[in-house]
Amino acid sequence: MTVAARTLTDQEQRERRAWFRVRWERGVAFNRRCRIRVTRWDADGVEIVLPYAESLSAHEDVFHGGVISALIDTAGAGAVIAGHDFTKGSRLSTVSMSVQYLAPARGREAVAYARCVRRGGRVHFADVDVKVDGRICARGQVVVTISGERPGVGDPIEPLDEE
């Protein structure tokens, strides 16, 4: 089924990008549970900080590789949506991801630096580097599709209850 494109003003585009930024921190249960913080969110890319917690570890003081992989996915998708043209839809899904672990992720926080490197009609690509204490520990590429409209875009985002 093809969804007819809707013309959006520049202001509406900015409002959607801002809404997704808040959603990344407060509206996605997994992100909130991990306590991620978005420290940069613009068309050139995003920066997302993941503080260390024992519940995210593989070994003492080392982030679990799966958590680093999830951070890459979150940041890569964020980099795409932060500069997205919402006349092309708003329902985002990751279709593939590759991750290379370069060093143990040992430190007080992991920081993902992501940028969209190719925008297509529906398929978009992002590159992500993850650093811990200023040292690169992982690198990844995330491929997402965006098509159709995500229900609830623009609705108020209430903080999720802590579990």
Describe, in plain words, how this protein is organized in 3D:
The protein is α+β, with helices and mostly antiparallel strands and 163 residues long. Helix content is 26%, strand content 37%. The strands form two sheets. It has a six-stranded antiparallel sheet, covered by helices on one side. The protein has a two-stranded antiparallel sheet with strand order 3-4. It is globular.
Short description:
This protein is an alpha+beta fold. The chain has 3 helices and 8 strands; from the N terminus they run ααββββαββββ.
SSE diagram, text form:
Blueprint: H1 10-27, H2 29-34, E1 37-42, E2 45-51, E3 57-59, E4 62-63, H3 65-82, E5 92-101, E6 109-119, E7 123-132, E8 135-146
Antiparallel strand pairs: 1-2, 2-6, 3-4, 5-8, 6-7, 7-8
Helix pairs in contact: 1-3
* Helix amount: 25-40%
* Total DSSP E strands: 8
Low-confidence stretches: none
Helix count from the secondary structure assignment: 3
| Ends distance | 38 Å
Using the CA coordinates, give the radius of gyration.
16 Å
Strand content: 35-45%
User: Main beta sheet: strand number and arrangement?
Assistant: 6 strands, antiparallel
H/E element order: HHEEEEHEEEE
Query: Pairing-aware structural class of the strands and helices?
Result: alpha+beta
Question: Overall 3D geometry?
Answer: globular
Lateral arrangement of strands in the main beta sheet: 1-2-6-7-8-5
Domain Thioesterase: 62-134
Protein name: PaaI family thioesterase
Organism: Streptomyces doebereineriae
GO molecular function, one term: hydrolase activity
